[in-house]
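Re: the 216-residue chain
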Amino acid sequence: MLIRKYKSSDEKGWVYTKALSYLFSPFFDDRETAKPTLNRDIYDDRIEWVAEKDGQIVGLLDIDIYNQECSQSYLYAPADKVAYFTNLAVHPDYQGQGIAQALYDRALQELQEYQVERLAIFTREGDVANHLYQKWGGKLVCSDYLVVGQPKDTPTFRFGVDVEKASLSLIDMAGQPLPYYLREGIYIVANQADLDLFDIEECYQEFTYVIDICLA
């Protein structure tokens, strides 16, 4: 197994590996057909690693590093330099072989070289992924629910984070609490009790972790 830096000729294998990895996962709505380019308006750098076996891409990891302005205003974990865990995927035939750990070990070295202080990770339910992020030192700072269904109303909202409760904080334009909002056809619900407002077809829980990076 070769762990190496991503190169542009890896894109097809990158897309295939991510698609297969996510196919039966809670990330049902993540269906990229090309590797996204780095958004230079908010990010300064990108860390990119792949795992290769017999010439085939079987694992990938991307971490984008926010610029100073976005880092200092980041809702979940403001700091002078914050990074966002953009992608982690392992081909289904190669899962359980330590590939994710090997990719992260390489990325962690780079995070330290870049002097990144905090790494934010967004994930969804599933013992394997959540256990892995917790193993890496991830502290849960927020959770919410994704609901496929029909609500009784769709309010205008403002988005925030209640750090003490480790939950999203949703309010209307008058400052009153809201139970949910609509994002790309999926309803985001802040509190479990408010799931009763829906006739639910499917429901997935999301988690946000923050890892404090120990700088060398």
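Residues 142-207 form one domain.
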